[in-house]
From TrEMBL, chain A:
<dbReference type="InterPro" id="IPR000182">
    <property type="entry name" value="GNAT_dom"/>
</dbReference>
<dbReference type="InterPro" id="IPR051646">
    <property type="entry name" value="NatB_acetyltransferase_subunit"/>
</dbReference>
<dbReference type="InterPro" id="IPR016181">
    <property type="entry name" value="Acyl_CoA_acyltransferase"/>
</dbReference>
<dbReference type="GO" id="GO:0004596">
    <property type="term" value="F:protein-N-terminal amino-acid acetyltransferase activity"/>
</dbReference>
<feature type="domain" description="N-acetyltransferase">
    <location>
        <begin position="2"/>
        <end position="166"/>
    </location>
</feature>
<dbReference type="GO" id="GO:0031416">
    <property type="term" value="C:NatB complex"/>
</dbReference>
<protein>
    <submittedName>
        <fullName>Acyl-CoA N-acyltransferase</fullName>
    </submittedName>
</protein>
<keyword id="KW-0808">Transferase</keyword>
<keyword id="KW-0012">Acyltransferase</keyword>
Automatic annotation (TrEMBL), chain B:
<feature type="region of interest" description="Disordered">
    <location>
        <begin position="211"/>
        <end position="253"/>
    </location>
</feature>
<dbReference type="GO" id="GO:0031416">
    <property type="term" value="C:NatB complex"/>
</dbReference>
<dbReference type="Pfam" id="PF09797">
    <property type="entry name" value="NatB_MDM20"/>
</dbReference>
<feature type="compositionally biased region" description="Low complexity">
    <location>
        <begin position="220"/>
        <end position="238"/>
    </location>
</feature>
<comment type="similarity">
    <text>Belongs to the MDM20/NAA25 family.</text>
</comment>
<protein>
    <submittedName>
        <fullName>Actin cytoskeleton organization protein</fullName>
    </submittedName>
</protein>
<dbReference type="InterPro" id="IPR019183">
    <property type="entry name" value="NAA25_NatB_aux_su"/>
</dbReference>
Length: 195, 1000
């Protein structure tokens, strides 16, 4: 029971239950609106059923439980959907919401003929890594010092995780460079992962 | 990059690209100076350039930027800017206005000075002088979008469409037209929709012609230009006559789509825009039918050219002999192949299609049954979106009612479900039951059982038989999902509709579950928490003793289960957290019944302890903030608020947590409350700028599906109630702290008064009250209502304070008595202040020997003395009330003092008769008010001293919590010390401030 619908600009007035969570950053208005404007189909929200009435755009006025923001980027075989942020409020975890949102994002990625979907995750975030692995993502490479504010205040490495889409029939997008077998050992710098 | 940097950067890039390298080199140093805020250097650079070329438009524009740099902009600088703008407009026949970058700069500078009207005139002049200059027209159009001048945007885009022959201007124009047609109850919508229809049809007719498809132009319709100049209305009238009579029954199914197969929408954005047009058209048609007296059937009324599609040419609905009503056309558009294509590609459009089919469908048209079939197939194929389930159920009940009105807020039901509907209800139940019990996702997916609950709820609304009775289904749901944290939230809509006997029965069952003995696992913790929340909500009777016992029970559970989260990192939440939140709410409920303040103090002990263990449980922090404010400990509340660290848009939605009636706490040694108000207020400028620029951007990028959404967002932010509440609250704080610039204030008050008097009905309340969940009983006030300081501040409160400030500080403005404002919206002190603001005007107008107005006004201060004495004597009153009475007394005196000063100057300047005697009379009046205020000050000072000695009392009042070993003597002592210190600082600070203010 989770209502999945496109994120709307006015949801910014209602996303506190998600964004007051310690791991979710709140950005300026233009950050969200830029995503909405450029990649509206890749920005979705899940809402709880407890709404008091119908509002437009698919919403029922229930509390917001989580959202995913994505974009498309890259050239040629690097053309892919990227998950910029996915977050679920603390009270609504372990309900399969992340899977629901990722599923939609992948479908949209398929619709625009992406080769793969990718995302970055802190190397210490075992829970999230486990979730993405269960959804079919593999660790493609390690991005050195990608995140600030890691354990003991140091920068933390991130993992670039990928899942090939149907266009990538030969799964070239997840073939590790140099014949490596473990993406954790393929180290790149942050500047190497911009498209 | 700052806005100034962006502007000068745009200018430099444009000069470089256009090859104006001499000019580029000449202005480059000025631009560099502006980027680093060296305004004097920039001015010198401009002066040098203007000496050689006095009409150098770019230099003049840069000069306005330099003049507007230092803030606040002096009145001399403002005047010079206005003069420059006028000269750019008029010199060399407005040649300077041909430069879009110059226009950008001038518009930004003028906008910053609040001279919106003059900026509009600037663009009007620019487009008049340079009608063939496309970039100037684009700049003007985008400016109109930016500032919400939709009519001007529509007009210029129509001209652009004519002059520049580019398809994009057609869509700009249609969109700008539709933005004005959103209120379908407004008759002017007809002409707007007719205009849009003409443009749209013309566009697709041309496309069909170009594609060699066989289509006549719509009835030899006039060109769009004619429509723009009033032709649309006459067309509308003519078509209205023609279209009268009952339509032929054409369902979406039989819509003539085949012949349009060759024509397609270019993009999802274009499909979206046309869909919105068709929706507005259908809604307008329905609104007109509803307001017409005779007809009962909306479809039988043909009221304008928008009532049939005989002229409408679309890729989804092609011209044919069939004449569709707007409702049918809208449905046909979605039912077409184009509709299938675009809805399959985007969830938003698919959702819109479902809503449309439900809203505009009918039994005869078969939309509900078809929709049901499509949705049930999706569910059988594994879809789990609650929207799909909800719309399947809604279609079911639309069929059963033979109408979908009941699903859109109209309480109109059939006495019994239709035969077809009863069958569909049965099929829907079987579908959900099957999915819940047998599908692979049945064990984890909550929606299937909730679907059954939703069916039971809809049946109950209609007083129909509940095939799956609500209460047992609800209990089944609880049994299956009680270990999920969100179980209570899922059930809330269904708990709301239980009757008393069901509530009593459920209360007993839930209490038994909640009281389970022995140690709990983590999942058992969630089950007990959910049972406790349900039990609290459905409880039918309660009293202070029950709530106190419940609170202590929750504290016990909290400490019992706290060890379950022992190994968790500090960033994680504790499984036991919700017991602390429930304890806090039960203590607050106990206080509601008993008015024993110690209940609030005990709540705070538990909440603050909970925060030590679970720093990020924001629900606990918000409740703690509310209670601290009630207890008059603002500095502690602010400290908690700063840990929440709200950013960006949260300034609008969350700042009310500490800034509602914040003037109460503004007079202390530290300026924390004022700082918060200033920073939240400042954000609006950034937020509104970003929202406006994004609205411009979606137009520029032709993202038509986002335009209206962004415009709605921009409106909600620009006309945020909280923004205006903050403005008045900041002004109050400045008055109290003696930081007010009277000259600037008069203008600010004038602007605020205008807004409040003219636009209060259009304000949006974006304040978030949902983030603190309510766990009080259904028949009790919510936790927010129980813990807010005074009546909720809404538009009447805003109007009252705007009236107060206008009456005191804007003496030239008319008196606003505010007698229509309901006193229940204000605290007694605030109501008295409103009256004082009127009484003072009477004092100013009184004759020398008339002392009655003065006595009336002075009664305010006597009332405050009485109120504060009553509040101090009554142990059931809270500390914030004492502080507010004293603060309002001080505020009244400060305002009166400022008003007398202004009035005295006025008397002297105008050399009014007996002005010296009147000045003396007013001086004496002020002295009398001052002496009375001093009395209030003495009371609050004495109160502060008493508070300082309250630590032992506070320790005693929370001592019942010592039964929990972690809340030992040291802990309670530290808690009491911190609370008393914060309260003492506040009370003594206010007393001292009144003393200082009333010394002379």
């Amino acid at each position: 029971m989770s209502l999945l619908r496109p994120f709307s600009a006015s949801d910014l007035f209602d996303f506190n239950a998600i964004n007051l969570d310690v791991w979710t950053e709140t950005y300026g208005v233009s950050y969200y609106l830029t995503y909405l404007s450029n990649w509206p189909d890749l920005f979705s929200v899940v809402e709880s059923a407890g709404g008091e009435g119908r509002i437009t755009g698919g919403g029922e006025g229930g509390g917001l439980m989580g959202y995913v923001m994505g974009k498309t980027e890259g050239q040629g075989q690097e053309w892919h959907a990227h998950v910029s942020a996915i977050t679920v409020s603390p009270g609504h975890r372990r309900l399969g919401l992340a899977s629901l949102m990722m599923d939609l994002l992948e479908k949209v990625g398929e619709g625009v003929h992406s080769w793969f979907v990718d995302l970055f995750v802190r190397e210490s975030n075992d829970l999230a890594i486990g979730l993405y692995e269960s959804l079919g993502y593999i660790i493609y490479r390690r991005v050195k010092d990608y995140y600030g504010g890691g354990p003991k205040g140091k920068d933390e490495d991130g993992f670039d995780m990928r899942k090939p889409l149907s266009r990538d029939r030969h799964q070239t997008s997840i073939r590790l460079p140099g014949g490596a077998t473990d993406g954790r050992k393929v180290v790149v710098r942050p500047e190497d992962v911009y498209f | 990059m700052s806005i100034v940097a962006q502007l000068v950067n745009n200018l430099l890039v444009s000069k470089k690209l256009s090859g104006a390298l001499v000019e580029y080199r000449a202005i480059q140093p000025i631009c560099s100076a502006l980027e680093v805020a060296s305004y004097k250097t920039a001015l010198l650079g401009c002066a040098k350039l203007l000496k050689k070329q006095p009409d150098h438009a770019t230099a003049l524009a840069l000069k306005t930027l330099a003049l507007a740099g230092p803030r606040p902009v002096s009145s001399a600088a403002q005047q010079e800017i206005v003069t420059i703008v006028e000269s750019v407009k008029n010199q060399a026949s407005g040649a300077g206005l041909a430069d879009p970058e110059v226009l950008q700069i001038l518009a930004w500078v003028m906008g910053g000075l609040g001279r919106g009207e003059e900026t509009l005139a600037l663009f009007a002049k620019a487009t008049e002088k340079h009608p063939k200059n496309e970039t100037v027209s684009i700049e003007a159009f985008l400016h109109y979008v930016r500032v919400g001048e939709r009519r001007s945007a529509q007009q210029i885009s129509m001209r652009m469409q004519r002059n520049f022959k580019n398809e994009k201007y057609t869509w700009w124009s249609v969109m700008a037209t539709l933005l004005q047609a959103r209120d379908v109850s407004d008759p002017s919508t007809d002409i707007l929709l007719a205009l849009a229809e003409r443009q749209i049809s013309d566009h697709y007719s041309q496309q069909r012609k170009a594609a060699g498809l066989d289509v006549a132009t719509p009835n030899g319709a006039p060109a769009i230009e004619g429509a723009a100049e009033g032709g649309a209305q006459s067309q509308a009238d003519a078509a209205s006559e023609k279209g009268k009579g009952k339509e032929s029954a054409v369902s979406a199914d039989s819509a003539p789509v085949a012949s349009g197969a060759a024509l397609e929408f270019d993009s999802a954005h274009e499909y979206f825009l046309i869909t919105r047009f068709l929706e507005l058209r259908a809604l307008r048609h329905e609104a007109k039918a509803a307001s017409a007296t005779a007809p009962a059937n909306a479809d039988s009324v043909a009221v304008s050219s928008t009532s049939t599609t005989s002229q409408l040419v679309l890729p989804s609905i092609t011209p044919s002999s069939a004449s569709l009503t707007p409702r049918q056309a809208f449905l046909a558009h979605f039912a077409s192949k184009e509709g299938d294509k675009w809805c399959a590609g985007g969830l938003g459009l698919e959702i819109w299609r479902r809503e449309t089919e439900l809203r505009f469908g009918s039994i005869e048209g078969g939309e509900w049954v078809k929709s049901w079939e499509r949705l049930s197939k999706s569910l059988e194929d594994g879809e789990t979106n609650w929207h799909t389930m909800l719309y399947l159920i809604r279609c079911t009940f639309a069929v059963a009612d033979r109408s979908s009105k009941a699903l859109f807020g109209v309480e109109e039901f059939s006495a019994q479900p239709s035969e077809e509907g009863a069958e569909l209800i049965s099929k829907s139940r079987a579908l959900f039951r099957g999915l819940a019990d047998n599908s692979p996702k049945g064990k984890v997916e909550r929606g299937f059982l909730l679907g059954l609950l939703e069916i039971a709820r809809e049946s109950r609304r209609r007083k129909w038989e509940e095939a799956d009775p609500l209460l047992p289904t609800l209990e089944e749901y609880f049994e299956r999902f009680s270990t999920k944290m969100c179980c209570f939230d899922d059930l809330l809509p269904y708990l709301q509709v239980l009757n008393d006997s069901e509530r009593t029965s459920l209360f007993e069952k839930m209490t038994t579950i909640a009281e389970v003995a022995g140690d709990l696992s983590i999942t058992a913790v969630y089950r007990v928490i959910n049972a406790s929340k349900v039990a609290r909500f459905v409880a039918t009777v309660s009293d202070a003793a029950t709530q106190l016992a419940a609170a202590e029970g929750f504290v016990k559970r909290y400490f019992q289960t706290l060890p379950l989260g022992k190994g968790l990192p500090p960033t994680d939440l504790q499984p036991a957290d919700d017991f602390a939140l429930l304890a806090g709410q039960a203590f607050v409920a106990a206080w509601q019944y008993s008015r024993d303040r110690s209940c609030l103090e005990r709540a705070l002990v538990v909440l603050e302890y909970g925060l030590q263990r679970s720093k990020h449980k924001y629900q606990i922090r918000i409740l703690a903030i509310n209670i601290l404010r009630l207890l008059g400990a603002s500095s502690s509340a602010i400290a908690h608020f700063r840990i929440l660290n709200p950013k960006a848009i949260q300034n609008d939605t969350l700042s009310h947590l500490v800034l509602n009636r914040a003037a109460t706490f503004a007079v202390t040694q530290d300026a924390a409350v004022l700082e918060e108000a200033v920073s939240a207020s400042k954000w609006y400028k950034t937020g509104e700028h970003e929202a406006a620029e994004m609205a411009v951007r979606v137009f520029s990028y032709h993202n038509y599906s986002k335009i209206e959404e962004f415009i709605v967002f921009q409106d909600r932010l620009t006309r945020s109630l909280n923004k205006y509440l903050l403005q008045i609250e900041s002004m109050r704080m400045r008055v109290l702290r003696g930081l007010l610039d009277p000259a600037l204030t008069t203008e600010a008050v004038g602007q605020l008064t205008y807004t409040v008097e003219n636009r209060t009905t259009e304000l949006f309340d974006n304040r978030d009250y949902k983030t603190l969940p309510n766990h009080q009983a259904k028949n009790e006030p919510s936790i927010w209502e129980q813990t807010q300081m005074g009546p909720k501040t809404q538009t009447p409160w805003l109007r009252a304070f705007t009236a107060i400030y206008s009456n005191f500080l804007n003496l030239k403005a008319d008196l606003v008595e505010g007698t229509d404002i309901n006193a229940s919206e204000l605290t007694p002190s605030e109501a008295a202040l409103l009256k004082l603001s009127s009484d003072v005007r009477a004092v100013f107008a009184a004759a020398l020997d008339d002392s009655e107005p003065e006595q009336n006004a002075l009664a305010f201060f006597k009332i405050q003395t009485t109120l504060i004495e009553q509040a101090l004597e009554d142990s059931g009153r809270l500390p914030w009330e004492v502080l507010q009475i004293a603060e309002i007394a001080l505020e009244g005196y400060c305002l009166l003092d400022l008003a007398i000063e202004q009035r005295t100057i006025e008397l002297a300047e105008t050399k009014a008769q007996d002005h010296a005697k009147h000045s003396k009379r007013l001086r004496n009046f002020r002295i009398a008010a001052r002496d009375l205020t001093r009395t209030v000050g003495a009371r609050v000072t004495a109160h502060g001293k008493k508070v300082a000695k309250e630590r032992p009392k506070t320790v005693t009042s929370v001592s019942s919590l010592k039964q929990f070993p972690l809340l030992d003597d040291d802990h309670l002592l530290n808690f009491s010390h911190a609370l008393v210190e914060s309260r003492r600082a506040m009370a003594e600070g206010l007393g001292a401030a009144i003393h200082r203010r009333c010394i002379k």
